[in-house]
Amino acid sequence: MNDDMRAAVAALHLPPKAGSPSITSDLTIDESLLLHGAGFEPTDLVTGISVQAIPYGSFMIPYGQNEPAEVTYATQAVTDAFRSAAGRLRNVCGQAGGFGAVGVEVEVEIGAQTAKVAFTGTAVRPIGGGAKEPVRPFVTDLSTKDFVLLLRAGWEPVDLASGASFVAAPYRGLRQSIAQTTQNVELPNLTQALQDAREKAMERMQRDALGSSAQGIVDVSIIDGPLGHAHHVFAFICYGTAVRLVADQHQRIEPELVLPLDDYSGFEASSLR
After folding, report:
1. Cα 74 to Cα 94: distance, rounded to the nearest angstrom
2. Which of 71, 115, 185, 194: disulfide with 166, CB 3.0–4.6 Å?
3. C-alpha–C-alpha distance, residues 17 and 35, integer Å
4. What confidence category does residue 176 fall into, taking pLDDT thresholds of 50, 70 and 90?
């Protein structure tokens, strides 16, 4: 048993604080042990949700549009939904005594007139108390394993940075559509629309991370493609964990050999002596 495992087992035997509430989390047993080994403990399962309205007709292409154009109402609705949902998650996390939320799952739904963003994660705090509460709890979609590796490397999560863009592609003319019916050619109107959406969303995510004094973004997730209710509108939504270095320098993590003993049919146990 290594030092981290011993620390985790010892932490589990610590008596609960007087008046402390019961712990609720969506972490597995392995994740809970790993989290305790890193000096943290779960406090509660926290959520944050926001539903924003999109004005009727926002996804319609104006008559005579010849170039891709951003659907500003939809873009702003998703941006505001991310910001509001994250703010509510932090508030609930702080009320639960957490210093941040890990393993946050992000759900995004875009309808004809609404945009919904929902966050669900586990609030965590240092074991034993005594640590100064942060001014702003962190939010990360990193798994418990990745969160612990990040801490060991001398980094810390800052926030969940996000960016979004919706771009409407102009329709092809009748003559152009007929001419391309039997040809294998690129559709520049669709290509340019998705490219524009990607560049704008990525730039906004990076700007969001810089606003949190972060030094980078890791584990970026992407939602892209045409909308189901408006096939001519391409969405590009990206989000990831903004991180910063808190140690003097990046700490190298040496890999360790782990041999599972729950499947020993391929060798004799005596050969391990």
Report:
1. 30
2. 71
3. 18
4. low
Confidence of residue 8 (pLDDT cuts 50, 70, 90): low
| Cβ(93)–Cβ(101) below 8 Å | yes
Number of domains in the chain: 1
Give the residue from 26, 2, 3 showing the smallest Cα distance to 144: 26
Residue 59 tokens read as: 């996804």
* Residue 253 domain flag: no
Nearest alpha carbon to residue 46 among 81, 92, 84, 88: 92
What distance in Å separates the CA atoms of residue 192 and residue 195, rounded to the nearest whole number? 5
- Amino acid identity, residue 21? P
Q: Under 8 Å CB-to-CB from 143, ≥6 apart: which residues?
A: 31, 102, 103
Q: Is residue 57 part of a domain?
A: yes
202: in domain: yes
